[in-house]
Design goal:
Helix content: 25-40%
Largest sheet: 5 strands, mixed, barrel
CATH superfamily: Nucleoside phosphorylase domain
Distance between the termini: 26 Å
Number of helices: 8
Number of strands: 10
CATH architecture: 3-Layer(aba) Sandwich
Strand content: 25-35%
């Protein structure tokens, strides 16, 4: 049964979904990594493609930007399309000086100072946790592929971190023991909704900007330069 945001029918979406933010990145993944893929959603251009990756059925669907958009799409995928696992793949800002552009981060816990959980579920919660089993699969897959993976806590913000008037003031509001390695805009909603609905979620991020690096990845580089992260997510999905 389609939803107001997704025209796919139940059965069109696989049990495991790889979820970039950008619809064009979803299109890129389908065209370059999947076989026998089919476009199953075009509503609001939140493209969703279902196809085969090394013989396993996988869906790649865009989440859009920010927690409200992610919150809608992941809730509907879990609740109405019987999705069990979502691996977010996205871009992030780096919060450690040793991070380089396109380093890959696996989020363990995510901090958000906003009120997503309070509004959705009357829960004054500001830290959400990835599924440990999914994270273990991703970490083992990275090791098998000889791929460097940085594990750590991350932040999820309501605005693009590069546009903050004073990011250092934001950092002072994060619990001192949390020590985030990066920041993005969707993972808290994904992790919280997954926990609420008893599902599984993980988040992989590639560093595309940093408070310690002058260079910023271009839109084209963000779309096509993230192949190591994409391949890691897809290879891990084979073991779920």
């Amino acid at each position: 049964m389609p939803t107001p945001h997704n025209e796919a029918n139940v059965g069109d979406i696989a049990k495991t979904v790889i979820m970039p933010g950008d619809p064009l990145r979803a299109k890129y993944i389908a065209e370059n990594f999947l076989e026998d893929y089919k476009l199953v959603n075009t509503v609001r251009n939140a493209y969703a493609y279902t196809g085969k990756y090394k013989g396993k059925e996988i869906t790649v669907m865009a989440s859009g930007m920010g927690m409200p958009s992610m919150g809608i799409y992941c809730y509907e995928l879990y609740k109405y399309y019987n999705v069990e696992n979502i691996i977010r793949i996205g871009s992030c800002g780096g919060y450690k000086p040793e991070l380089k552009l396109f380093d890959i981060i696996l989020s363990e816990n995510v901090f958000c100072e906003g009120n997503f959980a309070l509004t959705l579920n009357n829960d004054n919660c500001h830290i959400a946790t990835a599924d440990t089993h999914l994270n273990e699969i991703i970490e083992n897959t990275a090791n098998e592929n000889n791929l460097k993976l940085i594990k750590g806590n991350t932040c999820c913000t309501d605005c693009f971190d590069l546009y903050m008037t004073d990011v250092n003031q934001f950092l002072t509001r994060i619990p001192e023991e949390f020590k985030p390695v990066g920041v993005e805009m969707e993972a808290f909603a994904l992790f919280y909704v997954a926990k609420l609905l008893n599902k599984k979620a993980s988040c992989l991020m590639s560093v595309v900007d940093s408070k310690y690096i002058k260079d910023v990845a271009t839109a084209e580089e963000r779309e096509t330069g993230l192949n190591n992260m994409i391949t890691l997510a897809l290879d891990a999905s084979l073991k779920i």
